[in-house]
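Researcher: Structure for this, please.
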Amino acid sequence: MPKRDHPLKLTRNIGIMAHIDAGKTTTTERILYYTGRSYKVGEVHEGAAVMDWMPQEQERGITITSAATTCHWDGHLINIIDTPGHVDFTVEVERSLRILDGAVAVFDAVSGVEPQSETVWRQADRYGVPRICFINKMDRVGANFYSAFDSIRERLDANPVAVQLPVGEESGFVGVIDLVDMTARIWEGTGDDYGKVFHDKEIPDELRDVAESRRAQLVERVSENDERLFEKYVGDEEITRDELVEGIRSATVEGLITPVFCGSAFKNKGVQMLLDGVTRYLPSPEDVPPVEGVDAKTGEPIERKATVDEPFSALAFKIMSDPYVGKLTYFRIYSGVVEQGEAVLNTTKDRKERVGRILQMHANHREDRPAAFCGDIVAAVGLKHTATGDTLCSQDSPVLLEAMDFEKPVIHIAIEPKTKADQQKLGTALQKLTEEDPTFTVRTDEETGQTIIGGMGELHLEVIVDRLLREFKVDANVGRPQVAYRETIKKPIHDHVLRFKRQTGGSGQFAEVEISLEPTGRLADEPRQILDENEQPTGEIGGYEFSDDVRGGAIPREFIPSVDEGIREAMEGGILAGYPVVDVRARLTDGSYHEVDSSEMAFKIAGSMAFKEAAGKAGMALLEPVMEVEVVTPEDYMGDVIGDLTSRRGRVGEMSERGASKVIHATVPLAEMFGYATDLRSKTQGRATYTMQFSSYEQVPSSLAQEIVAKVRGE
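Model: Predicted structure, token format:
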């Protein structure tokens, strides 16, 4: 059996998470440089960051996909996942946090806690991930360590504890004070040495009082969570450095405190001490509770401890299409060992899989490994049926780990290939992209025939379309999805007669029908209730109904279904603008026939023509889909959100509270909701979320209806 080349106790699985532009990727690049993983520093603004390897990331200067890498520091093996900060790619953070043991939350020293910082913090809370904070960009104009520190406590409802203080701020930022060792580390170089030259000195006199007061607070907060230290603290005994480090570590692992570091990753100050903090205070796979799952055969809850003696169990958290090796499946191993070429069971799908190759990833570079052990984060080639959130385990003792829940897409656009050659490729490419990204959906609209893609925001879909062109060589057009309008009649029309007669050589065509139409939906005096199989009302109204009121055999029985069929066909084609007609009751009241010339076809044509003429006389109304919208927003933005919904022809209904947020319920036409995700984020700094679902069809105001009809007719 292969042997682990690194002790589990000295392994750290961490993620770097933050709001967009707080400096996550820059911090990760410095970590790779200091740990010897990179030989030169890649800068985000130059498009040269190792972790931002996708062309779309390099052009935009943002992280889109979470990238994994491995490095060594102070005898420890650190697996790092650099996650995106943009709200559109929040799924990448979600699935990374699900499998990590610890996280570094990066904050901007000027802005403090920002909206997306709140989102990722709540995600980490949900998965119980211990974390440390790094207040970055201490060299920026307006940087304020203490204000950023307070915002962590107030806005995140967290329990931050400073383990460092800055020496100077803005352009005068030269170093940090370590409150555990009570020394100051000063970087005196110009920055060309990438922060490798520094000196540990006495704390400057002007900062000694602040440092001693903050250290006293640190000792007090740590002692509150450790009985042994508390006795020493109360008895005024001295707490040694090692005891303090151990106290900080155990309180951090239990999630009782969050140590706060500071520095400037771009100016190469403070990152080495942050790495020390990762190895000192964040947990190894041994320190976190065993992973819980259920026995796939009996359904009984079981635990898997992080040891190689337990059966193999892992969770796939990311799928990636690699142009060289095909489908890559990233997974985190919770227990046991897996070897190259081994057959494993996918319990979620109940299928056997073979692990072809095991790869250690460094951004998009790969190193082959013969085996992987509990606590490792690796990628495998050869897993054909595994998707994000699936459990992989040994075939002898199947276990099902808790899967991941993902949010539903909030924005949809239509996509179509530019040429016939792209048609086939588009289907394959979209399938691969949906495998990679659980928040990206593809469906075909049955009515319009359009392919509709859905995602978490306009940037998300813009990147998808860009990837289609670059990676899959598919040229596609995108546009607003067509709204599925409907038509209906405005008022009843009685006893409309139509005679259909066509004489050609031989037998001709003859049919005469008399029909009455009336609305059954919202425009009716008494709307028709739709019933279920048990003849009970479903709560819905409208629908189509055909009744045969012919007396005295004026039309033979066998021709009556043909009239119904003709009316249905006419309804599908629409009267006003080609949209389907709904909510109509048609009554066949009278008619006549010819012994020789009448046929099923003649009565079908007569039914269709009679309906079109009668509907034209009754007057047509255009109906549009109206959505039930629920917006959850902080109270500060409530006025803006309600004003925006009203401007979209929305009707605001009840309002309620959910925790500290307000919930607004409204009904808004679907045609007005395109681009709402982006507008809502810009109005609320990204702090509001919304969901919507179909409610009903309602009449379009006449001025708008005229515009829509004119556009369809090309007038």
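Researcher: Any notable elements?
Model: The mean pLDDT is 85. The chain is about 30% helix and 30% strand.
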